[in-house]
Design brief:
This protein is mostly helical. Helix content is 70%, strand content 0%.
């Protein structure tokens, strides 16, 4: 029977289709074959929308195998997917015509999926169907529909306003159909004991997240990276074997944007998987080496993400070494800080100087008294960064002042011998900030002066009052009130 004739018969028949109407199983199988073939498919998708709208739930789902509808959903998803790219050409720009056609296909398919979910919700309420019939069908189609929605809901080269709107509405409907209140609940389950749909989603993504295939579908990495943060502790540890390899794979790419996506996924895994699971099978060491290699990058966003990730990974590694009683002359934190300080000494890009300076205090706090191993190089970095202004917000200088405070607090016995050079650098910075006629806002200047004053007070305490003695002459000869006020605070501190 022609589809147009079938639609007319279904519209006229009402809840009881006439005997001449073929079963839904047969019709949907034919539509699936049509969508999988080489024939034009746009008309078939529109006909499917009309069929979903006109058909009675009992005819549509009564004798239908879930696998049949699952196959049709997969065929529709493949039809609406962004065009595949060759692995070598994965970073080439998109053609406008290809993008527009992909977006229109996605909007049509999304509308078909919305009609399907409406019918499934209606079927739940019917006594002859109910959850016993609808449940297995939903279980089969939820994974592919979720991946479709996640592929098209965010602004990408293969989407437009209509496709994004349909995809967002579809995801909302899908979450409601599953009886969940959020995407996170949909993926992980309502409680730790309840199994969510994340395993099904990852099972579908796994086929496209291999070394040879992950770049062919440009949406796959984005779907994975958007989905992963919704699954948190304690659920994520159950899926560690599924999520860690693709995160490492994406982070190991030659493109900076892919590296950044992968590192952010690794950071989420580190934060949401127990340390014992991370250390099992040497996983934490593998992640550490992958991150360490990224420290040679020259891109500030990537370096920032890597340093934040390492700061959360290093305690896991150190704790594991202590438990295994593996004594090393230097720790992983020592290795990272040594490389960071080496790069900081020679770095001239302001963006990278700011990133390094913001992260440095956390490394000093992590090492504690062991920061004494790095004092010679750290001193050179502190002096160099205090000397150079890095713009209106002075992020690098503020970070270095915090670093100096932490260093004095943890390695105070080593400070008296460094007092002359540190005192000179801090006083010079005080004067530079006070006389600065540039665009630095007053609150930033105040923060710099306050940070320098606190460093001077700490130096005075660990040098048993030597700073007060050395500042006597400066205070008596200085005529600038703002600088005198900072020195006065140091002199009056007890």
């Amino acid at each position: 029977m022609e589809l147009s004739v079938l639609l007319q018969a279904l519209r006229l028949a009402g809840p009881q289709p006439p005997p001449a109407v073929p079963p839904a199983e047969q019709v949907l199988l034919q539509l699936g074959q049509l969508l999988s073939g080489d024939a034009p498919k746009a008309g078939a998708v529109r006909d499917l929308c009309a069929l979903m709208e006109a058909a009675d739930c009992r005819w549509l789902f009564g004798g239908l195998r879930p696998a049949t509808l699952g196959g049709l959903v997969l065929a529709l998803s493949r039809y609406a997917a962004p065009p595949e790219q060759e692995q070598e050409a994965a970073d080439l720009p998109w053609k406008d015509g290809v993008c527009a056609a992909a977006a229109e296909r996605a909007a049509d398919v999304g509308a078909a999926f919305l009609h399907l979910l409406v019918k499934l919700e209606a079927a739940k309420m019917q006594e002859s169907l109910g959850v016993s019939v609808v449940g297995p069908i939903l279980s089969r189609v939820m994974g592919p529909i979720y991946i479709f929605a996640a592929t098209h809901m965010v602004e990408r080269p293969w989407t437009n306003g209509r496709s994004r709107s349909v995809a967002r509405e579809l995801l909302e409907s899908l979450v409601q159909a599953a009886g969940c209140g959020s995407v996170a609940e949909f993926l992980r389950g309502k409680s730790e004991d309840e199994k969510g749909r994340f395993a099904a989603v990852m099972g579908l993504l796994k086929q496209e997240l291999t070394k040879d295939t992950w770049k062919r579908n440009p949406a796959t990495k984005h779907v994975f990276c958007w989905t992963l943060p919704h699954v948190t502790r304690p659920w994520l540890s159950h899926y560690l074997e599924q999520v860690l390899p693709p995160a490492l794979l994406i982070s190991d790419d030659y493109r900076e944007d892919n590296k950044l996506l992968g590192v952010r996924c690794l950071h989420h895994i580190i934060l949401n998987v127990p340390a014992a699971d991370l250390c099992q099978f040497n996983r934490a060491q593998v992640v550490y080496h992958a991150l360490y290699n990224h420290l040679y990058s020259r891109e500030a966003p990537l370096i920032q993400a890597v340093l934040l990730c390492l700061l959360d990974l290093l305690p896991v590694l150190e704790r594991a070494q202590r438990q295994q009683k593996q004594l090393r002359p230097t720790t992983h934190c020592d290795e990272v800080l040594q490389l960071v300080l080496t790069h900081m000494e020679a770095e001239h890009r302001l963006a990278l100087r700011r990133v390094y300076a913001r992260a440095l205090p956390a490394f000093v706090k992590s090492l504690g008294i062991l920061i004494a191993r790095h004092l010679k190089r750290l001193e050179r970095v502190i002096l160099g960064y205090l000397e150079v202004s890095d713009g209106p917000e002075e992020e690098a200088r503020l970070g270095i002042l915090e670093t100096l405070q932490c260093t004095i607090e943890h390695a105070w016995p080593r400070m008296p011998c460094r007092l002359p050079v540190l005192l000179k650098a801090l006083l010079k910075m005080l004067w530079d900030v006070h006389t600065d006629q540039g665009s630095t806002p007053e609150p930033v200047k105040a923060a710099l002066l306050q940070g320098a004053t606190e460093c001077l007070i700490l130096l005075d305490r660990c040098s048993e009052g030597q700073v007060k003695v050395l500042l006597e002459g400066v205070y008596s000869s200085c005529e600038e009130n703002r600088v005198r006020e900072c020195i006065r605070k140091v002199r009056e501190n007890t």
